[in-house]
Amino acid sequence: MADREIEEQAGALRAEIREHNRRYHVLDDPTISDAEFDELVRRLRALEEEFPELITPDSPTQQVGGGPITTLFAPVVHGVPMMSLDNAFDEAELRAWVERLHRRLAGAPPEGPPNGGPGARAARSGAARAGSMSSEDVGYVCELKIDGLAISIRYENGRYVRAATRGDGRTGEDVTENVRTLDQVPQRLGKAAPAVIEVRGEVYMALSAFGALNERQLEAGARPFVNPRNAAAGALRQKDPKVTASRELSLWTYQLGELDGGPGLSSHHETLEWMAGLGFPVNPEIRRVSGPDEVLAYGLHWQEHRHDLDYEIDGVVVKVDDLARRELLGSTSKAPRWALAYKFPPEERTTRLNDILVSIGRTGRATPYAVLEPVFVGGVTVGQATLHNEDQVKAKDVRPGDRVIVRRAGDVIPEVVGAVIAERPEGLEPWTFPTHCPCSIRSHLVRTEGEAEHRCIHPECPYQRQGAIEHFAGRGALDIDALGTKRISQLIAEGMVQSVADLYDLDWDRVEKLERMGALSTSNLRASIDASRSRPVERLLVGLNIRHLGPAGAEALVAAFGDLDRIMGASVEELAAADGVGQVIAESVQAWFADPANRELIERLRAAGLNFVGSATGAGNGGTKTLAGRTVVVTGTLEGFSREEAEAAIKARGGKSPGSVSGRTTAVVVGEGPGASKLSKAEELGVPVLDEAGFRRLLETGELPT
Ligand code: IVH
Asked: In the Cβ-directed half-sphere of 80, how many Cα atoms lie within 13 Å?
């Protein structure tokens, strides 16, 4: 690359970073995610490392934090600058930092300690000792990196006098009255207070408070906040402190600024203990550790458990514990050398919202979803994300064409949290819910009063059929594993399947001639459908797609009534009287079975030989304990029962189901792929061996084959 080009590239990156800094710190309205911002800084830094002559004193890499200050709040000059932190994004970067630190501590001459900072006194007495220490025994304090806003709170003679934001690191904004409203900020410090103390920490919004705030926003028809940090920033920078007070901000403190008086502190952990003793909130997860392995273990632990907390963290911070060593290490113009932020992989990214489409579920429910420019976030590539319903889209006001923030936290499904309004292209219209089902019938979508969802109510809607059959064949229902999404849509498109009952009347010669089918796939599909006939009746109930009825409700019904016919014949009152069945389920079940079309479906399923009888017949209803005092061992995979279901069926009849065969075993039930030792032991001891049909008989009658 030509010099000019590199210079231009660096200039462009700087301008971009400055603008994002302004948006983040001044306007509280960032247009890119933190991860994307970090990436820009990394690119600039890499360029400057390669071409150091390009570095300008005003480059964002040489400055701390937020850039210009607004005129909204009075400026406050920080006596001790509020520095930012260098970042490590992986293990190698963390280890490299530890090594640099060791090298400096072992040999490099100490840099002149800044005047008056905390620990300066300790540094003077301990510099020689620290400088000669072996690199092995550097102790660290690990802290959570709280995703909030840095704050400096000043006390003079034990009285709260001022609170300021970080601003550009040298000058912040006066938010004294707003911070005063935080419950955790002491107004007075008591007798042990030094003449001057500035505590530094992070103001944040707890997730519970954030959830409640966004609920209130939605109720008021206002746009929800996209994340707790933005909500906290908005709350802190209010002109009226009463508004701040109503937003429930919290605080963790983790550092000192100016200090005049107090005990002679020599380590960070002592400092934190002292701060806690003065009444400041110090995070309980802070740990003293030694060596990079323990730092890494702390980081990995919190990467995994970050969602156990009621506040957001975006990494951990590791700090050299010994204050004398800190003085030796000193700082760059931007960040201390004695601390490092170990950042977690991002859970939020921005991307383009290409479209909003609607999917029709098995009950006809129409769910809007975002079609996104694929983006890697939270460890996966996200191309689609649900938008739940019309009200959610309206509240978030996301429009096709917008830049949107996508979040995937932990195992939670990806979510579009909101639009980057500042980047909205001109002329984007608000999205409106489609009036018609996207299927070929194009029937009206209706939204009943009092409900949040739109529905397609056309009984022949192919999307509904597809959903209903997928659900019927799904693992939680009849588990027809050879019947996947594509196969189902093929059968529907060919007009061979309209309802689940059609699966049992298939013309197999025709199936075999379908595209991408053939003899093997056909026989697999056939076997898989055949096996579904003997699934437990509660699974059939789940598969019927009755609104509100899930696995727990289905099990409760079978336990109470024993078989499908009794459930069908029961009144709402009788159904609702069953343990674990509420009024909503009872009404829904009764209404479903009262529909003649559904009755017809049931009769077709009966004729097809599906199991209508509970394996625990009467067990929940005072039925006979066919296996009282007996022991049945199950080995291998059964078609109609999972291992848990088989054990539950045995226990429901008063029996036991241990993992090994002995002389006292009543019978061994053998499925596909049985354990060889159990089978040979049974033969050796003369214990009866049953197949699945024999097992069913045993459950029902208590009889063994003769
Ligand atoms: S120490 C001189 N400790 O992260 C060291 N910072 O990216 C000052 N932060 O500006 C910072 N949790 O706003 C420190 N436990 C923690 C922190 C923390 C969050 C923030 C802080 C800082 C930013 C740097």
From this structure: 27
Task: Provide the 8-state DSSP code for 68.
Answer: S
CA distance 293 to 642: 43
Length of the chain: 706
C-alpha closest to that of 702 among 659, 652, 663, 636: 652
Mutational test site, ligand 1, from 86, 202, 287, max ligand atoms within 8 Å of CB = 202
SS3 671: coil
13-34 pLDDT, tens digit per residue, is 999 988 888 888 777 778 888 8
- Residue 394 bears catalytic tag: no
Q: 34, 83, 84, 85: which to mutate for ligand 1, most atoms within 8 A of CB?
A: 85
Classify 355 as helix, strand or coil.
Answer: strand
Token code pair at residue 590: 């009764």
Radius of gyration in angstroms for the set of CA atoms belonging to the chain, rounded to a whole number: 33
Q: In the chain, pLDDT over 90 holds for what percent of residues?
A: 63
Rounded to whole angstroms, how far apart are CA atoms 230 and 224? 10
Of all protein residues, the one whose alpha carbon is nearest to atom 2 of ligand 1 is 83
Dihedral sign of CA atoms 494, 500, 506, 511 in order: positive
Q: Is 141 helix (H, G, I), strand (E, B) or coil?
A: strand
- pLDDT recorded at residue 65: 57
**Ligand 1 neighbourhood includes 199 CB (under 6 angstroms):** no
- Ligand 1 pocket, 146 CB below 6 A? yes
d(CA 362, CA 488): 13
Q: What is the 3-state secondary structure (H, E, C) of 4-28?
A: HHHHHHHHHHHHHHHHHHHHHHCCC
- The residue that leads in pLDDT, 285 or 547, is 285
CA distances from 505 to 486, 497, 510, 511, 609 (A): 19, 9, 12, 11, 11
Compute the distance between CA of residue 156 and CA of residue 587 in angstroms, rounded to an integer: 68
pLDDT surpassing 60 at residue 204: yes
Please state the atom number of ligand 1 nearest to the C-alpha of residue 341.
Answer: 7
Q: Is the CB of 262 under 6 A from ligand 1?
A: no
Pocket mutation for ligand 1, best pick of 145, 286, 298 (most atoms within 8 Å of C-beta): 145
Tokens encoding 196 = 């001057």
Cβ–ligand 1 contact at 54 (below 6 Å): no
Q: Tokens 């600024």 label which residue? A: 257
Contacts of 481 (CB under 8 A, 6+ apart): 473, 475, 528
